[in-house]
Write a structure and sequence with these properties.
Elements (H helix, E strand, L loop, with lengths): L2 E6 L4 E7 L3 E2 L3 H9 L8 E8 L4 E2 L1 H11 L8 E6 L3 H13 L6 E6 L2 H8 L3 H12 L4
Parallel strand pairs: 2-4, 3-5, 4-6, 6-7
Antiparallel strand pairs: 1-2
Length: 141
């Protein structure tokens, strides 16, 4: 599967990992699944991991619709979207996504090019990150 997610309630975090081939805007089932999970209501941080994308296919209209579905679910006191984008492809997509989230000023949007900077921002260590990402490494894509 080219997109997977997992909640990490101890950090009020939802980790989303995107891989090739993935068409942004066509993630209806995934969005429906995680937004219907009770844990989503306690989520204050979304982590988009774009490190494994090598090309971009995006349906801008449907991607904007997804942002409009998710944005109101963040607490009005604020939330954050953190994007790991170490590649040029990931950085390009991260900037496009930034525009989709501009309608939600209560949501902080940050892009990190290195895992270490993301660790510092989230207050986690590499061991925790390896636990998060490693769960997907052993599964068929």
């Amino acid at each position: 599967m080219p997109a997977r997610y997992r909640f990490f309630p101890e950090h009020e975090c939802l980790y989303l990992r995107f891989e090739d081939p993935f068409l942004f805007g066509q993630a209806d089932e995934m969005v429906k699944s995680f937004t219907s999970d009770p844990e989503f209501k306690r989520t204050r941080t979304l982590v988009f991991d774009l490190a494994r994308l090598s090309n971009i296919k995006i349906d801008v209209t449907r991607s904007a619709e997804k942002a409009m579905q998710l944005g109101p679910n963040f607490p009005m006191s604020g939330g954050q979207i953190i994007v790991l984008a170490p590649t040029e492809t990931g950085q390009s997509l991260a900037e496009l996504l930034r525009g989709l989230w501009a309608n939600f000023p209560h949501i902080e949007y940050q892009v990190f090019g290195a895992e270490e900077d993301l660790f510092d921002h989230l207050g986690i260590g590499p061991e925790y990150w390896n636990r998060i990402t490693g769960e997907f490494d052993d599964t068929a894509g």
